Amino acid sequence: MSFDVNGKVALVTGANRGIGKTIVESLLSHGAKKVYAAVRDLKSADPLVAEYGDRVVPVEVDLQKPATITAAAQTASDVELVINNAGVYKGQTPLSPEAADSLKFEFDVNVYGLLRVAQAFAPVLKQNGGGAFVQLNSIASLKNFLSAATYSASKAASYSITQALREELGAQGTAVVSVHPGPIATDMADHAGMSEGAEPPTVVSEAIIHALKNGEFHVFPDSMAKQFGEGYESFAKNFIEANLAEA
Question: What's the whole-model pTM score?
Answer without folding.
Answer: 0.96
